Amino acid sequence: MADSSPSEKNFETDITTTCPICFESFKTPRILPCLHTFCHNCLSSYILSTCKNKESPVGFPCPLCRRFVPAPSFSVEVEKWTELIPVNKIIHTLSEKGDKLCDACKRADEEIEASDWCESCSELLCASCVKYHKRSAVSKNHSLIPIVTFNNVSEQNKKIESPYALCQEHNDRVEYLCVEHEELCCTRCAWNKHRKCTQIDGIEEVAENLRKKGKFATLSKEISEYEDTLVKTKSEGEDTIRYIDDTSDEIRKESTELRNKIVNHVDALLEDHLSELAQNVKQNKDNVAEIVAAVSDRHLLMAQYLQTLRDTELTPPSILVQDYLKIRRQFEHVTRSSPSKLRLKLHSHFSEDLTRILQVTKFSDIKTEIKSLPLRGIDLSCATMELICELNGCDGDVTGGCFLENGDIVLANRDSKQLLHYRNYELVQKVTIGMQPRDVVQQTPLFILVSEHHNLKGNVGQFDLNAFKNVEEILKRDNNVYSLALSLGFVYAACSDLILKLDSKGNVVQQYKVDNYTYSVAINNKNEVISSSCATHNVTVMDNSGKKMYLYTHKKLKYPYGLDVNFSGEIFVAGQHSNNIHVLTPTAELLKIYEVESPRCIKLKKTSYMCFVGSKTKTTKVYEFEKYLHR
């Protein structure tokens, strides 16, 4: 072979295997969506330092270009995010090799500088070998990347397919979508991992269907509305910080002026007062600033989502569908884990103290009135519960059910042993099953889980959504099974004196001891377990280990048969014998009691304030909580 050219010998100056954070050779290099690469430990430390003071962080800015990087998963702790960010295999190989020599030539005991990287072979190739590689029938379709582009992000964007567009398990191109699991698949995934799944569609067909059904436009609209809320909340937070400054300045000015009149006695006391004021101001400004930072991140994330969803025509189908699914899942999580807005009032009663200064030994404490509101929410302490419609055909004894992802409603009617399917609030299907159904939750786009029992024998069955047929029994028990809840792939089942936590195969992985006659269970966005007992008439909030955190009891709450939790963590409890709905804060403090006749269960629609209330004797009704308007 010919000697290497001068340009080939200069590749060392064009390529770097040095981490831009620690300035040492890469150790387990991780590549971000913006294609900047960092050591695993360096990136992990950076993420932790960036997110540690933020409420429910949703991502972080790239250390180099500051482009906002969405969290790789919302179901794991921030400490584990880095483990889910892909390894940059090219840089990893170069770092381990320690040279930039052509691998094919090295096998022939020749040392020629490489010019390209073959993704398919994971090898470096010189210019001559690249020519033969392209001519060979075996390797003519391999993806070759010029080495000189490794440090040029704009060129990488053109020439390197992002690892996020590939199958995470095999690093192959995505060809299919498993509808049952909503999981992108390469050919190997489809034929192995998903070979028993009922519906696997080609990725181009899925992309076209999403376009035709207007899914991108619908999600864009939701994100735009949420973005508007973020902008408004950010502005309110900044106004609040200015209010804190202005009000504290007023307090400081008035305090100082009054001090001058009685300076001989007040100096020491005023010093303490101002110190306390400064501490209070700092604490409150820090609190508001944290929320503003969290909102800013969400704003950046929404802007990024919108940009992705608007560029659908030029985006390859595999990336398009993947981005859509990823954005939709992340958007649902972001809206559930949104930070709270603060309403803050800062004031001091120092003037009253100063008029009695000769008897005062310490100024009164500076107090801050703070009211926390959900970012997308309404103040349920002064909202109204407006009737939308009645669901005809379900005359009493509805013990549970759920809203499906498409807005349909499925009810469990215990007495008739039927599942009732409503579309646009009209009954479209009524299916009789073998046992008495108690509750329904949607497990995947194609399947629901139904709890049912008869004669003290209970089970949880997986039902096909299209045929409403039981295709698999997830759980069998020698006692009754009541309410169900889903969280992070686990199923929670209320069984009177126990709440069972099941994995995807129906194995019991944890048991929570609860009061007798516990018929309901819900899981909030902090993975806390919420239940109510019809024996003690209490509502209990436990952490995921089973430790009791909060307890709610009220003289106007009797026989709380059903409950649910919304995207903000607020708890809705149906008092069947007290004829009311109790709405509680996430820490089980009362917000408001709504009068409803004989409510047996209440189920909320995701990311909204719509719900249906099932009854022991009456027709199931659909309601929506609305902001109270003064007339």
UniProtKB/TrEMBL annotation:
Domain B box-type, residue spans: 97-147
Protein name, UniProt field: Tripartite motif-containing protein 45
GO-annotated molecular function: zinc ion binding
PANTHER family membership: BONUS, ISOFORM C-RELATED, MEIOTIC P26, ISOFORM F
Xref: SMART domains: BBOX (SM00336), RING (SM00184)
Keyword Transferase: no
Pfam hit, one: zf-RING_UBOX
RING-type domain segment(s): 19-66
SUPFAM superfamilies linked: B-box zinc-binding domain, NHL repeat, RING/U-box
Keywords for this protein: Metal-binding, Phosphoprotein, Zinc, Zinc-finger
